[in-house]
Design a protein that fits this description.
Elements lengths: L6 E2 L23 E5 L5 E3 L1 H5 L4 E8 L4 E12 H8 L7 E6 L4 E5 H4 L5 E6 L2 E2 L9 E3 L12 E7 L6 H4 L14
Parallel strand pairs: 1-5, 2-11
Antiparallel strand pairs: 2-3, 4-5, 5-8, 6-7, 6-11, 8-9, 8-10
């Protein structure tokens, strides 16, 4: 269950670039936007997101910095439900997640809508803390954790792949921990 070169931890280390953004998801201007290669672009308030039936996902986390944490339980909204509502066009093959402070993460659409992928707001029964991405953190557990973007505000469906923040800074475009795509 642990990919090559990973070390198990019981902690959830805090790693990110820059400062932790101050986010008020109840502010009238805060919205999650789903857009791009879709026929039904839409926005949701945080309350609307929290009113969507939640699911729990038990998964392992693997960080590109060589730590892994097993048996995490995340709670949130399935990304598949959000994407299906947007009615993706046949040309949509990739997702670019847009987060606070201009941070971006690219993920293949097929992986972003897998059954174990969420926009998570809770971890192990408690609200995710701001340093871990509250109010909404992507969860794509089959990839390195940098692909599970913190502080998500937008999901753009694209027909072509493009590098996100970390990929522009030398990280692998895909991020599979089992093949060490660092």
């Amino acid at each position: 269950r642990t990919p090559p070169a990973q070390v198990l931890t019981v902690k959830w280390p805090v790693l990110h670039y820059g400062s932790i953004p101050k986010v008020d998801p109840h502010h009238p201007d805060w919205r999650l936007r789903i857009f791009g290669q879709v026929d039904n672009e839409y926005e949701l308030t945080y309350d609307e997101i929290r009113n969507i039936p939640a699911v729990d996902v038990r998964c392992d986390m693997h960080c590109v910095t060589h730590w892994s944490r097993l048996d995490n339980v995340f709670t949130g909204v399935p990304t598949r439900a959000l994407i299906e509502r947007a009615k993706p066009r046949a040309s949509a093959r990739f997702v670019m997640c847009h987060s606070e402070a201009g941070f971006t993460v690219n993920v293949p659409l097929k992986q972003f809508i897998a059954e174990d992928c969420l926009l998570a707001y809770a971890w192990d029964g408690k609200e995710i803390t701001p340093e871990h991405g509250w109010p909404l953190r992507g969860l794509v557990p089959r990839l390195y954790l940098w692909k599970s973007a913190k502080w998500i505000r937008g999901i753009e469906l694209r027909n072509t792949d493009a590098p996100g923040f970390w990929e522009q800074n030398g990280y692998h475009m895909h991020g599979d921990p089992w093949t060490e795509e660092r």
